[in-house]
Fold this sequence. Notes:
Layout lengths: L5 E5 L4 H14 L2 E8 L7 H9 L7 E5 L1 H14 L16 H15 L3 E3 L8 H12 L4 E3 L10 H10 L15 E4 L4 E4 L29 E8 L2 E5 L2 E2 L2 H14 L4 E7 L5 E7 L1 H17 L2 H20 L5 H13 L5 E8 L2 E8 L7 H4 L12 H23 L1
Parallel strand pairs: 1-2, 1-4, 2-3, 4-5
Antiparallel strand pairs: 6-7, 7-12, 8-9, 8-13, 9-10, 11-12, 13-14
Helix pairs in contact: 3-7, 4-5, 7-8, 9-10
Amino acid sequence: MTAPKKVVLAYSGGLDTSIILKWLQTEYGCEVVTFTADLGQGEELGPARDKAELLGIAPENIYIEDIREEFVRDFVFPMFRANAVYEGLYLLGTSIARPLISKRLVEIAAETGADAVAHGATGKGNDQVRFELAAYALNPDIKVIAPWRIWDLTSRTRLIDFAEKNQIPIAKDKRGEAPFSVDANLLHTSSEGKALEDPAEMAPEHVYQRTVNPEDAPDTPQYIEIGFEKGDAVSIDGDALSPANLLTRLNELGGEHGVGRLDLVEGRFVGMKSRGIYETPGGTILLEAHRGIEQITLDRGAAHLKDELMPRYAELIYNGFWYSPEREMLQAAIDHSQAHVTGTVRIKLYKGSARIVGRWSEHSLYSEAHVTFEDDAGAYDQKDAAGFIQLNALRLKLLAARDRRLK
C-alpha cells in the first residue's frame, strides 16, 4: 500500500490508540486527524483532546462529537424494530456502533482531504471487519489502515517500550497486564479477555459496571409504561423523550433492578469462539416492551415472517454488513411492518427481570369478543372450526392411510 498522506484515526485517547497515533506519524510521516465519538460510553472525553494535542495534533484536526442521538435514532431503534438478537441472546451492542463510527471516519476524511482512515481493532476480532466493510461500502476508494495487522508491537512489553520511547503517558494500571478489556456505548457494555477467557469460571462481580447484582436489587418491583409510535419507543410513564434520553433513562431503571446481564460464548465472524460479559439494561427492557406492543398490533403472518427474517438480519449486523443491500432490503420490510405498532406497554422490573404485565393500543388486533369463554354473541361460530380441521387433516390422513397399507 502506498503510504498515506493524511489519516483519520478512530481515537479513544487510551494507551492503544495513542500508540497507534504516534506509530502512524513515525511509520508513514503522515498527518493525523483524530475522531473521538461520544456514543454514551460514560467517559469524560476532554482528556482525549488533551492527549491528542500532547501528541502533536493540531486543534483543527481533533474531532470530538456527541453522536448519541444519531446512534440511537438511526441505528439502535431500526435494529430494535426487528427484535434483533444474535445467537438467541446477544443484543448487538458493540456491532451496531461500528457502522456509525465508520460513517463519520469516512465523512471526516472527505472534509479534511484525508486519503485513509485507521482503527485500533485487532486481527482476531469482529470489529476490524465491521469498520472496514462499512468504510468500503461508503467510499470504495478509501485506504484503511489496521496497525494491529501490520506492526511488530505484538506484546504488551513492546507496546510499553514504544510508548516510553515516544513519550506517550502511561497510566500506572496500564503497565501490567489488563485484567479484561471494556467497550461501552449507550446501548451496552462489553467486557472480554484476560480474566474472562475461561468460560468455566464465573465472572467476578466487579466486571459489571451498569447493573447491580440482581440479588441486591430492590425487594419491591417497579412498574413502568413505555409508549410506542410506529415501532419506536417515544415515552416513559407519559413523558416524551428523545431517543438517546429515553435509552439513558431505561439504562438507569434497568441498572437499578439488575436487568440485562449476559454471560455469552459466541461464534465470531472470523471463526473462533469468544466469551463476553454484556450489560444491556435499557435494551433488554426495550426488546421486551417492543415485542409486547407487537403482540397486539402486528398480524400473525407478519409477526411470524419477521421472526423468520430476524436471525439473518441480526447476523448481517454482527458480521458488519449494515450498509449492504440485503440489510437495507430487510429493513424496508421490517419498517413497513411497524406502521401500526403504536401503543403502550407496562413492564415490571424486579430482581434482574423485565416482564410485560400489560399492553394496550388504539391499533390493537385483539378482540375480546372473539376469544372470550363467555357467550360470544355470534362473533365466532365454533362449528366453523370442524371444516377447518378436516381440510388441514386431509394430507395427514392420506399419509397415515398409505403407511398403514404398506405395513
